[in-house]
Design goal:
This protein is mainly α. It has helices at 35-49, 64-76, 82-90, 93-96, 101-108, 110-118, 127-137, 143-162, 170-185, 192-208, and strands at residues 5-7, 14-16, 21-22, 28-29. It has two domains: 1-32, no CATH class; 34-208, Hypothetical protein af1432 (Orthogonal Bundle), CATH 1.10.3210.
Length: 209
């Protein structure tokens, strides 16, 4: 179908396109859409879904800052795979918002959904069990999911060191840092530079405690 613009279903923004192709399942894509466009679509969707959420730091920073920082860390270290970067931007949408797996599959495809599901906790379990399972599962994640996990932990550990949750005691901060080290142990071997970045962030955070 030829048209000059289409409304993006993830953010309801009109975008100029050439030829819109609609699949049998109702999904759409734009031939020639750039990777930048695909990333901005994921960022726009994440910003919308996390719009009412805040981080727990003293400034109550917008939650979207976190997912953007995860993607930024990955690109800083040369990660260019579009699926990985979209998953980084979307990694908390199913776990922390009303987004459904079907919705992510419809808008961003099965590969992105698969990575997001790998790093999504089952919120029906108690927190201690969820943390235990993250340690147990981390060695078995796909490479893409390990990259997202590394970016996520780098972002979180950096925040715990520089701008920790306002109500966290020193003991809780140290326990969290120790836990991340166990999770990342299972991700090692996938990207040396990201692992070194995590190690430096961890050292800095511990020095601040």
């Amino acid at each position: 179908e030829e048209m000059s613009s289409v409304t993006c279903p993830s953010c309801e923004t009109k975008v100029r396109v050439g030829s819109l192709v609609v699949g049998e399942d109702g999904t759409f894509w734009v031939p020639g859409m750039t990777e930048v466009g695909a990333l901005l679509g994921a960022a726009c969707f994440a910003a919308d879904r996390h719009r009412d959420q805040r981080r727990k730091d003293i400034k109550s920073s917008p939650y979207i800052n976190h997912v953007l920082s995860v993607a930024e860390v990955l690109t800083h270290h040369g990660i260019e795979d579009i699926i990985t970067l979209q998953a980084a931007l979307l990694h908390d949408t199913i776990e922390d918002t009303e987004t459904s797996p079907d919705e992510l599959d419809h808008l961003f495809g099965s590969e992105v959904l698969s990575v997001v599901l790998e790093v999504t906790d089952d919120k029906s379990l108690d927190k201690a069990e969820r943390k235990r399972l993250q340690i147990e599962k981390s060695p078995h994640l796909s490479d893409r999911a390990k990259l997202v996990k590394l970016g996520d932990m780098i972002s979180n550990v950096t925040d715990v060191g520089a701008n920790p949750p306002a109500d966290w005691s020193l003991e809780r901060r140290i326990e969290y840092l120790d836990w991340t080290e166990q999770v990342i142990h299972g991700c090692r071997g996938v990207h040396e530079w990201l692992e070194e970045h995590y190690d430096m962030a961890l050292d800095d955070a511990r020095e601040s405690c």
